[in-house]
Amino acid sequence: MEVNREIPNLKKLLADAPNLLVPGGRIGVISFHSVEDKEVKLDFRARKSEGTYELVTKKPITASTEERDINPRSRSAKLRVAMRL
């Protein structure tokens, strides 16, 4: 995570996203670590409070049991989606 500067790059993406999305546009972020997921969750909630986003997914979407059986790496993936107002 550190070598690829994943957290700083994620923070930049989250900061830039509202300016890149048209009203009604959606942003979806798949995170694989709790640190990443927390950043996305906090950003989406803060922008919801500002009136910038509406949360499409109240809780993250995770892999089904069948998918985890087929693809064990999917067990840590969490998808969060927000829509630009």
Describe the structure.
This protein is of the alpha+beta class. It has a single domain, classed as Rossmann fold (3-Layer(aba) Sandwich). Helices cover 45% and strands 21% of the residues. The chain contains 3 helices and 4 strands, in the order αβαββαβ. It has helices at 6-20, 34-50, 65-70, and strands spanning 26-31, 53-55, 61-62, 78-84. Strands 1, 2, 3 and 4 form a 4-stranded antiparallel beta sheet that branches. The longest helix has 17 residues, at 34-50. The radius of gyration is 14 Å and the shape is globular. The model has no long low-confidence stretch (mean pLDDT 96).
Helix and strand pattern: HEHEEHE
> What is CATH's topology name?
Rossmann fold
The level 1 CATH classification is Alpha Beta
Name given to the CATH architecture: 3-Layer(aba) Sandwich
CATH H-level homologous superfamily name: Vaccinia Virus protein VP39
Structural class by helix and strand composition = alpha+beta
Q: What level of helicity do the residues show?
A: 40-55%
- Work out the oligomeric state of the chains in this entry: single chain
State the total count of DSSP E strands: 4
Shape: globular
End-to-end distance, in Å? Answer: 32 Å
Strand content: 15-25%
Question: Main β-sheet: number of strands, strand sense, barrel status?
Answer: 4 strands, antiparallel
Mean pLDDT comes to 96
Radius of gyration of CA atoms, rounded to a whole number: 14 Å
Flag low-confidence runs: none
Supply the number of structural domains: 1
Instruction: State the helix count.
Output: 3
